[in-house]
Amino acid sequence: MTRPAPNTQTFTDHVALAAALKQAAASSRQRRALVLAGAEAWCRQAATSITHDLAFSDVLWVTAHSPEGARVVQGSQAGTVLGQEFDAVVFDAHSGFGADAFGAVTGTLCGGGVLLLLTPFLAEWPDFADPEHRRIAVAPYEAAQVTGRFLRRFVRVVRTAPGVVVVEQGRAVRAPERSALCVAKDFSVPEASAEEDADCRTQDQRQAVEAILRVATGRRRRSLVLTSDRGRGKSAALGIAAGRLLRRGLRRIVVTAPRMDASAAVFAHAQRALPEAEAARGVVRLGEACIEFVAPDELVLAPRRADLVLVDEAAAIPTPLLEQMLRRYARIAFATTIHGYEGTGRGFAVRFHQVLDQLAPGWSRLRMETPIRWASGDPLERFVFDALLLAAAPAPDTALADAQAGHCTFERLDRDRLAEDEPLLSELFGLLVLAHYQTTPNDLRHLLDGPNIAVHVMRYRGHVAATALVTEEGGFDAETAREIYAGRRRPRGHLIPQSLAAHMGLEDAARLRCARIMRIAVHPAAQGRGIGTRLLRNLVQQANEQGFDLVGASFGATGELLRFWERAGFLPARLGLTREAASGTHSVMVLHPVSDDGARLFATARARFLESLPHLLSDPLRGVDPRLVAILLRSNVPLSLNLDAQDWRDIVAFAFALRGYEGSLAPLWKLTCAVLTDPRSADALSDADRDVLIAKVLQKRDWKAVAATLDLPGRAAVIKALRQAARRMVIRYGDEAVQREVARVGGR
Taking the domain 203-368, which CATH number applies? Predict the structure, then answer.
């Protein structure tokens, strides 16, 4: 295409336009956005002139090339400025457009501020060689093969967004639409009066602080859920309340969040409320009392005394981890952002409120509506929401109220059409946001542009009832497969083949083709009707038609999820040895064979998994929930009993006489492994039997830990439970000779 002629005019027009936007932003206490589109050098020169001539006091540059002396972060470092405020932000898309980074830094721009977005010419931007493409491309694809669907849609939003002004290099600077320069009729922030509360800036914030104080001082088990959009002072309310409670005599307040950086604003406001306190990163001390950050998984795995637990950005923490916190701590307040680049609070609301109803009846909720950093009706907030689909919502519950699996249609979506179909894209992404706690705007870009991703849906009357994102993995040549097996190569984006080859020693896995289901979601209003299972079966059938060898997935292991995948024929083949810090769970890999080669590899992987799991349970997997272990151990091909006559005599002596546990441990371990891999054991053992066998015999936890896990009074009760479980295994699996030994030893 023909570019505009080189610009020969001075930057005076751009500066004057920016000055008018700045004035409009300041007078309305809202924010404005100016897009400078053109060559890289021109854009940076224009932004430098604007920020210099208009004398912005606090300017943040997000770029790989900034003016000398400027405050600058790379896009990957955007999270480090959370909780800070700037009156101008320069976001240089020539250095790469990270959607999460853009969402993060726009949230630091305070009322009266101006965003300068530097882009290539808008018509050319979707085809621009964005440095961000290197993060999206996976082997064997190159960065040049990443599409521009996300940016094409972004440009469409830019051109129509109120309050966003575009200036392109070489073109006359025109007066913007009146909406960009107008002053809001009601732009004030309803202040809490000084008599009521000198620290809180709005009535919303004052009420939030009071609600947190009630959690700490009122009746136990009356938890609080505090929600808001970004910029409403939610984290500040946590910090103000924590500071006041420490001054009133609370000894220990624990703050947790997905990352320590995410809680920086909490500690900043706590310190402000306690100017005499000692403060360091993640801790505020006032004498012997303290406010301290503890990571979510550590808070659960290594419980500590806490007068109050404050959970910030709770939506970005998995529900099972939040549930464990709720069980362990009597006084706890959860706060989360409803729409945000770090995750969403809407899925949190659906999943976690049911848990609260069960474990903390009478819990309360409070929604903070009034913005603090900027005035209501802020056009930049609306623009960011639209551009990044932060407010995307799934189909209404009523539209899927009578959806049944047999009435849904399965289809693979054309992503070119999807990017143009805003209602469908919003429904699809809204469902992913609702179902997955860590879905972010970057996922939207990967969904639209990832060269190895396919998007599948189950639709009911046109609405998205379920969706799955599937990636192509594996298919390497023999030499590359050998390098992966040896640990010398790790091509990006091939999780399942690499894990099977490098960690399980199955070299051929890297040569086979695997379809990995990286995300799957079923609409809450349509769950429990087989729609998700039908979706998985359709994916397996399609993979077979397309010549794949395996279909698989990897996710944080929970009993509910494992049962869901098991219903569709997906069985565990590997369990991660460490808990993921973000989820507090061990990742599990499930597989479904498609081809003959896939079936052979699947059988080998399953056999190795079932053989190694009992050994791993006594060391790195000792802390895994016994109920989860019971599901993982189940197999259609159980381990052999492999017990001789003496083994059976030792087990019988423990189960039916008074033989000590330690003297019968070795044969009891062999019997337990064989029985728990046998699906028929469900008829012989109760849940309590399985739990005590797993916790003590397989995981070898100490007596006190087993008693605590199973809610038993002590060692004697655990031994009694073990004898009972052993008796049932002997009766169900022992032959006639064993039963005669039972009669002899047990006095029958």
Answer: 3.40.50.300
